[in-house]
Amino acid sequence: MKQLRFSCVLVYATVIIFLTSCGGGGKKSDADTTAMDTSSTAEVTPVTSTVVTTPQSMLVATHKVANFAKWMTSYEEHDSIRLANQIHSYVIGRGVQDSNTVMVAVKVDDMDKAKAFSKDASLKEAMKKGGVMGTPTFNFVTMVFQDTAQVSTDIRASVMFTVKDWDTWQKAFEEGKQSRMENGLATRAYGHDVDDNHKVFVVVALTDTAKAQAYWKSDMLKTKMKDAGVEGEPKRFVFRVVKRY
Residue span of the signal peptide, if any (predicted)? Predict the structure, then answer.
């Protein structure tokens, strides 16, 4: 009898040990749950860069119009003609000093088509209908840098000038970023003529107009430009962005 009792106790103890080792039939303890929660990976939002360095072919046209509203209507009516020539509207700006001087920047898929289109009779007729006055200026540009981040102002300046050597100028320009920012200028895009990288095209945002104007006249900038190999006086056009596509 004693032997039977001992065997029963032994079996009962074995069952208890088995159930305890299995977590009470599958139920997780608070300690286990806490450990799992602690080890979970927090979700991290990826940071998206606003800088684009893939070369972008663009056509930048500047001209004077008799009436901006009339011209704008005519411009948008002829969007199908631009698309047929693989040209895509991008930005329209109006001069700060003369609001009837208009700058049009478009993206180009085929530069040869864009060059031919700029000389096409249909474009001349459309521009005449829209009230374009005088001879428009066309610049065919390869943009090598663009910053699409939002800034606090719609005031921009396009700057064109000639350099002795593109690589020398680009290195100096990149090194001067902080100085420009401290003087109210934020780089939005830069590149060069599609056929001649000695002809440079830069677009900056004026975050502080007074500082920017003073900087453009400063001896410091003149020295920086000379060291970077800039030849002659830059041509600046200050405008306000009135439409983005």
Answer: 1-23
